[in-house]
Amino acid sequence: MASIFFFYLGGQFSDTSSRNRDTGTELGDNTNITSLDEEKNEISSKDKEVSVSDDDSTVVHELNWSEKQNDTTFKIDRIGIVKDEMESGAEGTIAVHFVIDNGSKKDISTFPNQGTLLTNTKEQIDASLSLSEDIGGEIMSGAKKEGYVLYPIKKLKDPNEIKSVRIKWDFWPDKDVTTNVKDFDINLTW
Fold first, then answer.
1. I need a labelling partner for 176 at 20 to 30 A (CA). Which of 29, 87, 110, 149 fits?
2. Beta bridge partners of 7
3. Sheet-wide strand order for 6-9
């Protein structure tokens, strides 16, 4: 499966897979580039900002969804949609940027990188563990994790055809109590 890495560059994602990367160019010390490793149930159009790449293959939606559960704040602030054929046959990827801030006194467990996404085009997609950043699992009390969860899209004619997504994942407010699972089930529209 192709490895696709997304970089947030001035409001846009860019595909830096080996076939598109200019290996002769060095980025140097540019602090304006934030890589993925650094980086209530409805979002209305007034809460978002949209960026489109010059060739219309990438669309980025800036969002403002957050929810606090048991002193842990879950946030989705950006969704990028990229049309780029992958070795797996998928025609694109949806990248969802999560921020999880555990302000509780307990260690938690959550797995957004094992969640499911449904598009307005009726495609249900499981998150790709191999392409997503490692933001799931145990998050210790006081810790903050953020990263992108990637969902490969089998059929994508145009990134602008995705107008909304529904995302589901699990959350345990106390990692030591496995019967206290909570399900996130959110709808984001732009």
1. 149
2. 14, 35
3. 12-15, 6-9, 34-35
β-sheet with 58-69: strand ranges across: 49-52, 58-69, 72-83, 92-102, 144-153
How crowded is residue 93: how many other Cβ atoms within 10 Å of its Cβ? 27
Half-sphere exposure of 151 toward its Cβ, with a 13 Å CA cutoff?
28
6-189 under CATH 2.60.40.1240, yes or no: yes
β-pairing verdict for 137-139 and 72-83: unpaired
In 3D, which of 189, 95, 97 has the Cα closest to residue 151?
Answer: 95
pTM to 2 decimal places = 0.75
Side-chain-facing half-sphere of 152: CA atoms under 13 Å: 19
Please list, in sequence order, all residues whose beta carbon lies within 8 angstroms of the beta carbon of residue 143, skipping any fewer than 6 positions away. 102
Residue-wise pLDDT for 111-123, tens only, equals 999 999 999 999 9
128 Cβ contact list (under 8 Å, min separation 6): 1, 150, 151, 152
Q: Which candidate, 82, 102, 85, places its Cα nearest to that of 93?
A: 82
